[in-house]
Design a protein that fits this description.
Layout lengths: L1 E2 L3 E5 L11 E5 L10 H4 L8 E5 L14 H15 L3 E6 L2 H12 L10
Parallel strand pairs: 3-4, 3-5
Antiparallel strand pairs: 1-2, 2-4
Helix pairs in contact: 2-3
Length: about 120
Amino acid sequence: MTMTTHWRVLRQGVPAGPGAPGTVVAVDFGKSRSEAGFADLLAHLDPAYTVLETVPPAFGVHDPEALSPETYTLGWTEALAEDGAPVHAVLGYCMGAALARAGRRGWPPGRRCRPR
């Protein structure tokens, strides 16, 4: 499993480029729970998709900037924009669902998630 500052690569799919299916983004903070996580979902997804799971930003607990969902997700959205691969789906679990929605609003224009 590869690690970046903003994303944990759960699975590397087909490299970005024409015809590549894109990326599935998972927003989760459940490392301490015993239920299945997004890594367990990989067996049920097309292996062509790259699957990324969020790494929480390094904000202090009382940092007022961390209270804005858009600020909290900024590093994630910037890293996705730099990568350039199309985002096929955004999945969120528990509080991760609200942050997935906030991050979706922060993606550069033209980036679209197409429900399947």
